[in-house]
Amino acid sequence: MQLPWHLYVMAALYILAGLNHFRKPKMYLRIIPPALPKPVLLNKISGLAEILLGIGLCIPEVSVWAAWGIIALLIAIFPANIYMVTNAKAGMHLPKWLLLLRLPLQLILILWAYNYT
Description:
This protein is mostly helical.
């Protein structure tokens, strides 16, 4: 089964984002809501999940499961996006309009992943 080229683009984005969790952990730790326990562990888990799911998207036998995993991950990290909007430090001094734009972007990313389920 031949996978579409845009699936590989999506996979590359998630793999690179996942690697970035380990390269620049402070950036991600800043956006984890304080109500969540063990932020260092959560950062590592989410980064590893992005890497593994990105790789899974490239394997025809598991690409559908990986796409569902991406959807679940995007839903799980949505509180971080809300926290970025509501907390100036977590928002990394980005303009409020840009942070608000991230919220519907999550839906677009979910729909993109859903195309491969």
